[in-house]
Amino acid sequence: MQAGPRSRSDSWRRGWDAWRQWRHTRPFWGALLVVAGGTEILLTEAVPVPLAFHIGLQGVAGYLIPVVLLVTGLLLLFHPVQRTFYSLLAIILALGCWITSNLGGFLLGMLAGVIGGSLAFAWQPRQRPDKEERDTKPPQKRPSAGLALLRPERQAEAGSAVTQSPDVSTADPRPLQAPDAGPAQ
Known about the structure:
By secondary structure, the chain is an all-alpha fold.
């Protein structure tokens, strides 16, 4: 009896983990906003005539641009490799809806498309370290050479052999040596 609920809970957890992994491998929220913007613009084309501000260029572009915007949002979700092209196309199409379809779906669809395209353009996939990189120890932190130039007291605190007076700073942290006088004659 207890095996049933536990297996259901495990399957929900595995499903939720698979959904999260899929969602994090693509510009999900940007694509969702582009799809919502395209849908909203397309729906505003069907409003009654007294509410319509602008029918569009012969009516065709008013329907064509939101449909292409909707397809662009779906492509951002299901083909994220070309996200740069699709996101720029979504921004251009959303801005083009200002002219062709009811002021960009009464501004809401246009803003959703522009913001979603911008989010998709800015999205970067997570860099996962390889298995062998995860197993190794992290590199040791070394003090910054530039910071030692700005704050010489930190270098003395760190146990460095070089101590300098506060009014003297050099680019080379090694102690100064007398120049060689050349060969003796």
